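Kindly inspect this today.
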Amino acid sequence: MNLSKQLGFPENSKLLIIHADDAGLSHSENMATIKSLEQGIVNSYSIMVPCPWFFEIAKFAKQKPEFDYGIHLTLTCEWENYKFGPVLPSSEVPSLVDENGYFYKNRDQLIKNAALEDVKKELNAQIKKALKFGLNPTHIDSHMYSVGASPEFFQIYRDIGEDYNLPIMISKQLMEMARLNPSQNIRDEDLLIEKAHYGIFDYFKSGNLSNYYSKVFENLVSGLNIILIHPAFDDFEMQGITVNHPNFGSEWRQIDFDSFTSEYSKQQLKKNDIKLITWNDIKKIKTAYKNVSYEKP
């Protein structure tokens, strides 16, 4: 059945989730995410459990359950001077860490070194830590889409979604970005993001990132769309975290925040007859996900 009709909208509606990645990465990221939810048009976010500022955003999630949030499964740490590693002791997942006990910087290093059993153990541990804290996530997604580093990783991602009865983010664009073949890894029964929009470095480098976001609203397709952003403030904390990394750096993240808390973006939703939905809406009607119960550890 058509997702729009299941949610009570006309069949060819443009459905949209405006999603903030990387909550928990830093205090700056947390504060910008919260303001984007409370003052802007962001209507969903996801939490990085292994990061130092997890506790702060997890407290917010419990205090403000009306906001939609998921778990941002994390296997990589791309930053030069800011590091984090698995929630499990490094000795339990040794193939996931470098010589200093931190996650590898990118998917290529990850796939070269990671054992499947370690990936499975760590991703489950991240979910269990969130549940133990009392969180009630609406979905699962992935930092840098590292679950798309291989078909085997992607199967683990699927299995975790089924085990915890949570929708997972599946997108052809994200698969292609991670160099995972969509035709070989998408199933007929999958809930598919029809179009995933996210900033590209060329837009930022040319000073056109905010203009790109302005035009996204006019380029949505019928069905489920998602805009992936990374709001934070261009302050000393984020400048230190993202040093020598302008791609998704502190200036970029400030543009994300400004773009999706602006009056212009709010007007664009109305102008283009866009229906904002959340992962929780999808979770409620996604009958393909069986009713399973799990015990919080």
